[in-house]
Amino acid sequence: MLLARLRSLLFVLFMVVTVIPWATMVLIASIFVRGTPIYWLCIGWLRISIWGARAICGVRARVTGFENIPDTPVVLCPKHQSTWETFAFPCLMPRPLSYVFKRELLYIPFFGWAMARLDMVHIDRSKRAEAWSRVAAQGRQFMSQGLWVIMFPEGTRTPRGSQGVYKSGAARLAIDCGVPVLPVAVTSARCWPRKSFVLRPGVIDVSIGKPIPSAGRRADELMREVEGWIEAEMRRLDPDAYPARADAPAVAVSA
Q1: Among 103, 104, 139, 157, which one is most buried in terms of CB atoms within 10 A?
Q2: Which CATH number characterizes residue 8's domain?
């Protein structure tokens, strides 16, 4: 455990040392260019961070389901267990991603300042109606520009082996825009626990499901299908985190 703490401290220092000059470069570059070039410039630092987690802390990734990624716009709906997937998904996906996130993240020095220069949807969670209007309007705008919107349906990070409440916002957006939902299961808490920067060596499994069509669907019914696939896949990928219980309800998965 002590070695893991020392490695994690080195990793945090690595991120701090690299993010300051990188974010400064992004802010300066954003004076002259915006949009996709700035996005890929930011992704360069995320790639460095994912490499640092692997090289310093021994956190590796195993990804399956790349063949399920379509060429058309989608709304990504991943399981959310740690910081790792917020860094990793832009590095894995072939299109620029527009995150829907709480605006407080913009106040993080350097990291948040750089995020503010990207085509992201930052919302005030205390104003639910206003937040949804912003998600709907900007989500449509960004997808029309070739970006994919990514929303964590549970809203926040959940501990390993747990399940949050799946909100229907991502499904509503997919239906409004006429695009499918792409569900993703990820076992990141196995190596990078929720609300912790003590990383453990190991393998994070990422499983990309088949796109789920949204045409003619109700948002709550569509999200139940997304939830069913993700939670069933989580139990397949990380069975030790979900001990079998006789009273546990079965997770339904649509064919």
Answers
A1: 139
A2: 3.40.1130
